Amino acid sequence: MGALNRFERQTLRAIQAHMRETMQRKQVVIEHIGTVDVFFHPTNPDPHLNCVTPHKGVAWIRREDLTTAFAGLERLGRIPRLVFLDALFPMAFQQQLEHMGLTLEHRRVVMGYRPLYGPNLPDENPLGQLPQWFDEPVSTIIATSDDEIATWLRVFRSAYYNTESITIELHEIRPLVTAVEQGENLFVVGSYENTPLGAARVAIIPPTAEIQAVATAPLWHGMGLEPALITTAVYTALDQGCDTIFCFISPTDLMQTYRRLGFIELANWLTLWRLEDDRNQSP
Predict the structure, then answer these.
(1) Share of the chain residues as helix, strand and coil, in percent rounded to the nearest 5
(2) 104 and 150 share a domain?
(3) Beta strands in the chain (DSSP E)
(4) Element containing residue 179 per DSSP (H, E)
(5) Structure pTM?
(6) 227-230: which pairs have CB atoms within 8 A and are 24 or more residues apart?
(7) Is the pLDDT of residue 229 over 50?
(8) What is the DSSP-derived secondary structure letter of residue 55?
(9) Does residue 274 share a domain with residue 233?
(10) Which residues, including other chains, have CB under 8 Å from residue 41's CB and lie 6 or more apart?
(11) What mean pLDDT is predicted for residues 132-142?
(12) H or E stretch including 235?
């Protein structure tokens, strides 16, 4: 990737700020150590909530800062990981990390909503734009009530975890309803012939919005639910004042669908670790 222009850098900085705010919403403890920040969750060992990232605005990190941060996570029972947006750093930065003994664990593509506008033939559905309507029999709603949120949670679990939930307890949906009431999340339900079969979750932190998950029930992939869920999520986020809408996906997961709907690749979200950390965790 070439040098970023001012707008591209501002967009990636906005995404960085969004991720930091998301961490804080989840009660993550943030400690600043020189050129890096350490994220730690006291009870949840999820790697996304326990990691190290370059401090805002730095273009390099000091070896001693990273060593101190990693040692702190190890003392707290977490596997040390470094995460960052590659486009904000020179290529030599990754070479420096390799010299520190770090290796790539996984890569997710950061895609941002950048629609393509221009003339097109009548009845043509151009690439790079959201559709104005959905083909029947696909429909979507934004879940807001207890019953709608319960439906969303049931569909999401079935689609994302392949787990059927016969009943949804009130204590499971109340935090989601509260997040909706506080304007922190959107929960989109997609239906095929009025049967709920897809679910999407969006984190709202104006002026940014992250499409965190898009999932459809097994055997219902490719039936039009995924683009309908993404389209509804984008239009609703725009209506709520978000001009930077993005997602993190694996290099193959729905990438073509996002491209057709006006998303482009902005950067890679890289996670690096030391291989010996993995071996030390093996039984």
Answers:
(1) 35, 30, 35
(2) no
(3) 29-33, 36-40, 51-54, 82-85, 103-113, 138-142, 185-192, 195-205, 208-216, 244-249, 263-273
(4) helix 170-181
(5) 0.89
(6) 227/131, 227/257, 227/260, 227/261, 228/134, 228/138, 228/139, 228/140, 228/190, 228/198, 229/140, 229/188, 229/190, 229/198, 229/199, 229/200, 230/200, 230/254, 230/257, 230/258, 230/261
(7) yes
(8) P
(9) no
(10) 26, 27, 28, 29, 49, 50
(11) 90
(12) helix 225-239
Which amino acid, residue 103?
Answer: T
**pLDDT at residue number 274:** 85
Number of folded domains that form the chain:
2
Residue 279 structure tokens = 């071996």
Number of Cβ within a 10 Å radius of residue 79: 18
Place of tokens 């994302």: 160
Q: State whether 199 and 240 are in the same domain.
A: yes
Q: Is the domain of 204 the same as that of 232?
A: yes
CA distances from 171 to 10, 176, 230 (A): 39, 10, 28
The whole-number pLDDT of residue 205 equals 97
**Beta-ladder partners of 112:** 246, 264
- For the stretch 47-91, pLDDT in tens is 999 999 999 889 899 999 999 999 999 999 999 999 999 999 998
Q: Which of 228, 241, 5 lies closest to 130 in space, CA to CA?
A: 228
Identify whether the C-beta of residue 80 lies closer than 8 Å to the C-beta of residue 73.
yes
Q: Which two tokens stand for residue 166?
A: 């016969």
